[in-house]
Structures are given as structure tokens and as C-alpha cells.
Amino acid sequence: MPGARAGGVPPERTEETGPWVEKLWSAAASGDEYAALDTVRAALASGLDTETVLLDVIGAVQHRVGVEWAANRMSVADEHAATAINDRAIASLPPHRIPDRAHGRVTVACVDGEWHALPARLLAEVLRLRGWHVDYLGAQVPSPHLITHLHRTGADVVALSGSLPTRLPTAHAAITACQAVGASVIVGGAAFGPGGRYAGRLGVQGWAPDARSAADLLSAGLAAPGAAHQVTDDLPHLSDQEYTLVKRSARQLVRHTFSALAERFPAMAAYDEEQRERTAEDLAHIVDFLCAALYVDDVGLFTGFLAWTADILTARGVPAASLLPSLDLLEEQLRDFPRTRDLLAHGHRALTEKIAADGTGQGKPV
Question: Strands 157-161, 133-138: parallel, antiparallel or unpaired by DSSP?
Fold first, then answer.
């Protein structure tokens, strides 16, 4: 599944934290929960404060888990196991102090459809350490349920986490709904782009690259949300309806492209069931990221995804050039959509240049 399990900037390693990172990594990678908990306890006993253990030890190990998965050096099962161990390590840390009323109340949640919850949990724990009253809602929170929660609790701020740019439309809807009930919104995670480039377009009150920065930003204070507004007030280009029409036809685009690939490349007839499923999944991801790029009107989102996918395919022994036929077929189907066609053309050109520079060669179509 494409995304950013390894997204963001890894915590800086120091002489104090480095050895503990290595010990916790060894325990998490081998699936040894008991060794992991012993490591966390020993790190605290050595004099590291809880926030440092949370962010610069556990957070650093989780970042490495994402890197290893993306490089195909860790299976999905092993990645899940290591993440669960890190989550258990967080739960083993000492209790937090009673919330300071002066700080206010924060709801921390993942965007609907977002299953990578550990970054959001790290933020929730740091905010608790700093005296905030925190409601941590976890992964994949449907927007209507989030709003119901805000009505019930009266939270001052909502902190939303997302790792996949394909969730940006859903995130935007949640952001505007939260602001409509009077809550300021801060966002974080790789979904919002390098430097939070998409966050500003969605009208949030703040963006932060990591949990420590988010906590500092909240302590400094956020602006109150403005008057209620519509999605097109933030993203006026959506009035051309291209995003809506392409998104609505996504399944049809995937089916047609898959069928056309099979016709143009007879070698696909020899694919086993797993290869066919993988091809269909890759096509669906291409269309999803194309739609996300249309939503925020950003070429870099699409070309960045293609570059990331090319690297993933190369790590798995699949030539990156196998993506090109799919882009050609999509462009044929979407000739009546100028912004979409322009995104595909940029994607094709950027991918061709990357392949030439990397020398990844030709291969079967994705």
C-alpha cells in the first residue's frame, strides 16, 4: 500500500538516545515485546525524560520500521508486529499528571480512512505530558462522529493526522466541519506534503512536522477559526468539476486500463492471481493519487507519488518503466479533462526522466 509509513523527518540521534534506539529497534524487529519494554524502562532509568523516550527513541524506531518496509526488507506482518510493540511500549510509560485547565482541551484523531495511528498517539502522549486535557480517538475517525464528539466535549482544538495524500479531500471536509463548530484545527503527517504545502490550502490554523513542534505550536496559541465557509472557498479550482467527475469514474478507469493492458501486452496472460491483483491495486493507487493531485491542483503530488512508486517497484525487482503504459492508457481515456491531462503528461515526463537517470530499464506493465 503506498503511503508514508516512513514519512516525515526522523528524530535526530544523539549520544544519549542512539544506543537506546538500537536496542529498541533490535527488540521490535525481532518481535520481542519483553525486551522492548525492558529497554524503555532502562532508558527512563538512565535519566532520559519521558518525552525524549517517546519521540527520540520510540518515534525514531517507528520511523525506521517504515523505511525498512518501504525498502522491502520488512514484511507487512513484521511491520505490523513492530508497530504493535512500539504501541505497547508507549502504554508502558509512567502515568501523566492531572490536566492543567489553563491549557485547554485537544482532540487528537486520524483522518477517516487513515490507519497509521502511532504518530497521532505520540502527539497525544506528548500533549498529556505537557498538561493538556487530551481526547485521543485513534485511527480512522469518520467525520460525523468526530463532530458529534466535539459537540459533546467542547474541545478547543482538533489535531488531525494523515499519512496518505489520497485522504486530503476527506481531511478537508473534516477540517471545515470542525471549524464550523468553533474548533481550531492543526494538522500533521505526510499527507499534507513537504513543509505542509497542502495544509495551508485547506484553511487550517496550523501545521507541524512532528509531535514536538505541534505541542510547541499549541502552547504558543492558534488563531480562532473564521466564519463558516465552503470547500471551494479554499480551493476555487474545484468549480471546474474535474475532480468530481474523475473521482466518480475511478473504478471504471481502473477496470478499463487493466483490460486494455491485457490486450496490448499478451505477456499479462501468464500472470498468476497474485500478479493480477497487484497490478489492479497499483492502477487503483495511480488513479487515487491522480484524483488527490486534482483536488489540491498540485503537479508535485502526482509526480512525487510516481517517483516513490518507481523506487518501491525497483526495490521489489520490478522495472519502474512498467508504469508508463498505464499513464498512456489513462491519458487516452481522460482527453476531455485539461487539468487531468496536464497532470498525466507531467507525470509521464517526470517518470521517463527518472528512469533515464536511474537506468531502471523496461519491463512488464504494472
Answer: unpaired
